[in-house]
Every structure is written in structure tokens, then in C-alpha cells.
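Complex record, two chains
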Amino acid sequence: MRLKKLTNTTIKNVKRSGWSSITAIIVMTLTFFVTSIFIITAYLSNSVLGYLEQKAQITAFFKDSADEAKIMDAKKALEDTNLVSSITYTSKDEALKIYMGQHKNEPLLLESLSSNIFPASLDVRAKNIKDLTTLAGMLEKMDGVEEVVFYKDVISTFEKWATAIKITGLSLVGILSLISILVVLVTITSSIHSRKEEIIVMRLVGGSDWYIRGPFLMQGILYGLISAVLSTVVITALIPAAYPYINNVLTGIPMPKLRVYTVGIFLIIESLFGIVLGTIGSLVALRKYLKV
Amino acid sequence: MIKFEDVSKKYDDGTISLDEINISILGGEFVFITGSSGAGKTSLLRLIIREDLPSSGEVFVDDMAITKIKDKDVPELRRKIGYIFQDFKLLSNKTVFENVSLALEALGRGDKEIQKSVNDVLKLVGLADKKGAFPDTLSGGEKQRVAISRALVSEPKILLADEPTGMIDSTTGWEIMGLLEKINTWGTTVVVATHNLDIVNSLKKRNIRLDKGKIVKDDKK
């Protein structure tokens, strides 16, 4: 019964605050949206990193002049060092096949291709990541080697980018959270002011602390929850649409599928986040402007 | 029931609104606090509901020392007291029924109980047919009856009225006083602050007269 009354008063407050309520909800939705994007980006960059790490650590591309026997010699020489955990040979024909597999939906592009333009390569993985430099040095000196791509550099460059993205994302989430709290604070403060008379009367008839403050606290929490749901709906609608673009950029990297479970987790995280932001905003307003 | 012990109230600007006040009001008494504007009547009532604290001395309400009770216990004190404001303090966006029920909602009472108590009290003050009306459509006397209903509905031990006849005509004023007397006969302690001497003189109740914050007269029982 009291919960019903609390809910009714809260909804009345939200409605009475009109545009302020809408502003609070928009700002909070934006915060959660950016947070979601940040979480997704962080998740993707981790997948990419994992993928890069487990993929070949060194790839040596051979000149067209180098025949298969020569490459096999190189392979044997590397294996003899006992530092290698695996070596995979990819011939020119196989490289073409792999490329065609990745671009099977683009027949025009594929028509003009021949295996000649793809180099043969050796993908080398070291038992110990520290020996990569030694192995890469050996390969560079070998006859017939055109180029050695050292994935350690790629990985560390990517790691730097990922860190930069995380810092930027976290800062953005931080700033937007602060703005959300401020907007909730302003909205609740104006709600308190518009119900000043009522509050005076309630205080003087002995209304309990919770009875008077409850609806305002709930108002902030409600903004948070509505925004969390809105943001989750938008994100859920956007992710499938963004998939092809993401796949294009991150070709070959397996992408996690969007599941009901993932959406549920998003909703729970954002709702909790919403409750926290709404509560902070409301409590600050109550502490400052509503002394019972 | 209500006791003032050497109570003084000074404000930061140096104004003294109450000066060494000693009063003892027993349970079930009907007391007038009289005096001209600025004599300290409202200050005295405000101390009883702990809207304000004394600069020195102590006020006891039903054995609770108001300077010693914690903030969280203030609602408990106020539930013992019904307060009737000079300007009624009715909420214009709520009906008569809603204005009165507010006092019970604040105490967390259930819907059924609220329904019954509010209807009973409105019948008592003669406003049963106006419960759906908004305050702006009521006369001064009717507004005052709503204010009394709200103060009364939670059945407080003490009823404080600040100039209850101040904003209504004299006939209605007499009706209101009659109502307060009736409430007093049920055992409720009634304290009325007023400068309407006609009423005070004819009702023959205990009169505590204040002048510049000091008690200049107290017809103790």
C-alpha cells in the first residue's frame, strides 16, 4: 500500500517536472549509450588482441624467385633451432585460395586475380615469445626472404591503441556520469522547490523522513532506470546493423554473436549504473535542499 | 503536558522574541496565548513543535525535552501535536479530502483507515459535502475548518492554533472557537494564540499574555 503511494507520488513528480525530466532522461541515456559503446569497444579490442596473439607471431614472405625447395630449407633451418613451436607453410596457390575465401562475395574483384600476386609465406610461432627476435633475425638474413612481418610490433601497437581507447572511453563515461548526476540534482531540486508547501505541511504533521524524501529519491532512480532501458533498446537495435561494418574492418577475426543473454547483461549493468547515478543526484539534492 | 523552563529566544540580529518564559500547561487544558503582533506568540508555538530551538532554557512536550531529541525523532514529537496555521497552509492542487488525508498518509496509515477517519472528521467540522472541493473555491471559514480537520484527523494529544480567527469574519470566528472548545472537551490540550480579546474575554479560559517576549499575565487555574 505504501509502495503504491510512493510509486504514485514519484510518477506525479516525474510528470510535473516535464522538460526537466526529459532532459535528465536524455542525458542519462546518452551516458549509458556511450558506456555501452565503450564496453563493446573494449570487448572487441580484447578479442582482436587475443586473436593476434594466438595467430602467427612472425610471418616471412618469400620473393617470387624463391622456389618451394628453398623455402623448405628455410623451414628446416628454423626447426633445427629447437626454438619453434610450429611453422606453417602457405604456398602462393594457398594464399590465393584463402583470399578468395575471404572475398567470395566480390566476384568482380576475384576475376582479375592470379596466384602470382600472392607471395608464399612461413608462419612461425616460437615456444617462448622472447625468442621471436632471434627467429625474426634469422629469417631476415635468409636468401629469398622478401619481408618479415613481426607481429610483436603489431600487437604492441594495437595494445597502445586499445589503451588509448580505454582511457578516452573511461574519461568520456566519467564526464557524462558527472553531467548526469548534475542534471538529476537540478531536476530534483526544482521538484523539491515546486512542492515546498506540501513538504512544509508534511513535516509539520510529523511525516517521517522516508515518507517525505522517498518520492524524490525514487524520482532520481526512475530516471536512471528509464534511461538504462532506452539505451539498451537503442544498442540492441544498432549492434546487428553495425555488424557488417565491424566485420569488414576486422576481417577474419571471429566476432561474438549478439544473444538475449548479452542484452540481459547490458540491461542489468546499465540499470545498476542508473540506480547509482540517480541515487547520488537525488541524495545530493535532498541533503542540500530538503532538511527534514 | 507542555512546560517552558526559563526559555529565551534571541535571534542573530539581537531581537529578543521570548524572555525567561516559565509556563506549565496540563493535559486537557484550554489556554489562550495573547498579546499584540510581535509579542512572541508564534515564536512560542514554534518552539512547541520544534520548528525552532530556544537560545536558552528547555521546553518539554509530553516529557520530551525538545533540545535533546534527535532530528530523526522530531516526527514522533510532531505526531503528538496538531497545528493550525494562521494562513491555513492548504495545498491548492489537492481537494479537501486529499488535504486532510495528507496528515494520515504521512503517518503511513492504510487507505481504509484514512477513508474512515477523514470522512468522520469532515462530518465533525461540517464539511462532509465539500470533500471533493478545492481550497480556492471555499470561504475563509471553510478553509479554516479544513485546516482544523487536518490538524485533528490523526487524533493528536495537543492542538495548537495560531490566530485561528485572524483571517475570517467574527461570526465564523465564534463557530471555529466553538469547535476548538468541543475538541478540548474530549481531552485534547488546546493552545490558541490570538489577539482577538473579545473571544478571550468571553470564553473565560486561562490566558497567558505576552508583551515584548515576557509574560505579563497568566491566570493559572
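Note: The beta strands of chain A are 58-62, 84-90, 121-126, 145-150.
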